[in-house]
Amino acid sequence: MDKPARVYKPAKTAMQSGRAKTHAWVLEFEPGAAKRPDALMGWAGSTDTSGQVQLRFATQEEALAYAQHHGIAVELGVPQASRIRPKAYADNFKYDRVR
To answer: What is the pLDDT of residue 2?
Structure first.
């Protein structure tokens, strides 16, 4: 396969406070063709269906091994370390809270 792919660890979405779906590594193909609007519905579409494929792996090594076994050129995205700041709901009502 001659299409390049990205291997990365997804970031936490802004719509959730938890860290669900951020532990797996994702292998995702780069789009091969530009999207264009459909004449009838106006939706954006493409003839390239590999852009819809998203494979999930437990570890980075598994994703890279899969890509190497199938001859896929990959671009590796290194995740940034995030700092978890514990918060409590009761802190909103403390007498000496920072405003």
So the answer is: 66
